[in-house]
Amino acid sequence: MGSAPETVSALFLRSDGKVLLGLRASWKRAWADHWDAIGGRVEAGEGLDEALLRECGEEVGLVPTSYRLMLSAPEYFPERNGAALHHIYVVSAWDGGEAENLGDEHSEIAWFSLDEMAALPNLTVAELIAVVRAYRAAP
Fold it and tell me: At CA 42, angle to CA 56 and CA 58, rounded to 5?
């Protein structure tokens, strides 16, 4: 491969319209102390869907059962965060019950409405809101 690293991110969308976000830990190199979608790096030899299921299980204990890839975009701030290709999914159904903050990637997790997301002073990128809006508008 030798290309830029890839990441997968899941925007879990509840039936009440709220979205699950994680507050990235203070020690993270990129976007420390910012609210972000759940996810992480795609490992060597791993497919995007495989990476999505693994990361969601590791980070919040949920296994996506219905999901759609909504956006694949290069890193918006490569000079700050390094080059990468990000794949953002909306997850509309999952197994595992309630989301739990597992591991040390996030200092907390919480559910937000889109208006609440838009009001966050420390949301990583506004595209997360646009992705959910586009998903809702799709047939």
Answer: 25
Cα pseudo-dihedral 41, 107, 134, 53, rounded to 10: 40
Task: Count other C-beta atoms under 10 Å from residue 72's C-beta.
Answer: 12
The predicted model scores a pTM of: 0.94
Beta bridge partners of 103: none
What is the SS3 assignment for 118? helix
- What type of residue sits at position 95? D
52 φ/ψ angles, rounded to the nearest 5 degrees: -60, -50
CATH architecture of the domain with range 6-137: Alpha-Beta Complex (3.90)
Determine the pLDDT at residue 2. Answer: 52
* Segments of the chain scoring below 50 in pLDDT: 1
Amino acid at position 132, single letter: V
Query: Are 108 and 22 within 8 A, CB to CB?
Result: yes
